[in-house]
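Write out the bound-state structure for 4'-phosphopantetheine.
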Amino acid sequence: MRRAVCPGSFDPVTNGHIDIVSRATALFDEVTVAVMINKSKKSMFTVDERIDMLTKVCADFPNVKVEAFHGLLVDFCRERGIHAIVKGLRAVSDFDYELQMAQMNSSLAPVETVFVPTSPEYSFLASSLVKEVATFGGDVSTLVPPLVLERLTARLAERSRE
Ligand code: PNS
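---
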């Protein structure tokens, strides 16, 4: 079985992430979306909330699993017999860091990184920008799935009441 992982913070999942996951499902038999647990990074959604949103928005892909991970990505891969990491490349500015990580990961374990070019309509999309635009009242309805828009709106409303 050809297995791959799509790792990330997914805080929250965007249409750009779903584009990459969906294309990975056509290339691999099983795709694990791995949500990084990073306690030092301030996030808008908890890991459980992010997993819940991802599980729901990926429900139509029969070969996608969603899991949390901490520590090294290569250890997560080794434990699950995964030999491919799928990453989206939005622009050449992503390339330097992604190449460095790909080379580091392949020096640590037998894993290849497969770069998938982001669809042009999502080339500017990042979770951090979605959060910033939504925080200041901008329309992000074309950038995230409806469920995520709902949760984002609710979280911002909660915060404004605090
Ligand atoms: O969505 P992000 O925050 O850009 O995702 C970054 C992620 C999770 C893919 C990257 O930070 C990662 O792989 N972290 C796991 C820790 C690790 O393996 N570090 C060594 C990378 S060479």
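---
DSSP finds six helices and five strands in the chain.
Strands lie at 3-8, 30-36, 64-69, 84-89, 112-117.
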